Amino acid sequence: MRHFGKRRPRTADEAPPESEAEISPEEQAVLLVGILDDPAAREDEKYDAAMYLEDFPGPFVESALIRTIRSEDFSSVLAQLCAESLAGIWAHQGRIDQHFFSELHRAARNEVLGVLGARGPHLIPGHTPSP
Questions:
Q1: What is the CA 104 to chain-centroid distance, rounded?
Q2: 66, 104 in Cβ contact below 8 A?
């Protein structure tokens, strides 16, 4: 099953198939969170969904990423991918969830610190900027 991946560009005379009709970003976010939450989804599908969710910031997506990180005990590959997407959202928005940041540990914390260190070091609590 292909999700939001790259596909062959259509030529000018090709119409998009109805199955590939454009869907709104909100609908895409709901579908991706659905994959993340689906116990029957394959591991690779969950990994892809976790990575794509960085592109859909908002409370719904952040909540889903946080929920997954917690349920994965902060240490699985899925938790790391969710943490990476969450940190990307925080870096892009220029703010972090202080409460959840203080809760982070293990591999998920390392992912968040890595992303924020590269893309928003000023967001890391206790970070002092270099002169």
A1: 16
A2: no
